[in-house]
Amino acid sequence: MNTVYIGLGSNLENPVQQLLTALQELDNLPATHVYRASSLYSSKPVGPQDQPDFVNAVACLETELDAHTLLDALQALEQGHRRIRERHWGPRTLDLDILLFNEDFIKTERLTVPHAFMHERGFVLLPLSEISPDIVLPGKGLITDILRNIATDDLQILTNTE
């Protein structure tokens, strides 16, 4: 069984509902169970500012799927939510990122784990620390230590997912 952390984000077409639906869909993936999910957080966009604020969360999954099969499933869920990749860091109906896959380091053309920028992003670290406060990010350290140096002032809890 693999323990996987997934970052969820949306800023189009009712983002709160997009994430709540995506959490249910993640739980319905083959041989997969959503073990924990963070609250939903509102955050400013990274990159172009001419777009709506994002809603973000992190989910912890237990799955028998390997990393690339899970990636394929996540991309299929994104497409089911009509995700269109028009511009880098642009608006989206649903974004699902594999943040951590066990304690593995994965570097392929399609997938980099741990997620390359997660240690710099409050909208990833704060929800991740909510569900796993003792987690150590490979090569970076304890999440609570990393969070001390990351701005989280613009994050607001919108709703609890439990």
From TrEMBL:
Superkingdom in the source lineage: Bacteria
Pathway recorded for this protein: Cofactor biosynthesis; tetrahydrofolate biosynthesis; 2-amino-4-hydroxy-6-hydroxymethyl-7,8-dihydropteridine diphosphate from 7,8-dihydroneopterin triphosphate: step 4/4
EC number: 2.7.6.3
Domain 7,8-dihydro-6-hydroxymethylpterin-pyrophosphokinase: from-to ranges: 88-99
Keyword terms of this UniProt record: ATP-binding, Folate biosynthesis, Kinase, Nucleotide-binding, Transferase
Top-tier EC class: transferase
InterPro entries, A to Z: Hppk (IPR000550), Hppk_sf (IPR035907)
GO molecular function, one term: 2-amino-4-hydroxy-6-hydroxymethyldihydropteridine diphosphokinase activity
GO BP terms: folic acid biosynthetic process; tetrahydrofolate biosynthetic process
Function: Catalyzes the transfer of pyrophosphate from adenosine triphosphate (ATP) to 6-hydroxymethyl-7,8-dihydropterin, an enzymatic step in folate biosynthesis pathway.
Family the entry assigns: Belongs to the HPPK family.
Name of this chain's protein: 2-amino-4-hydroxy-6-hydroxymethyldihydropteridine pyrophosphokinase
Gene (UniProt): folK
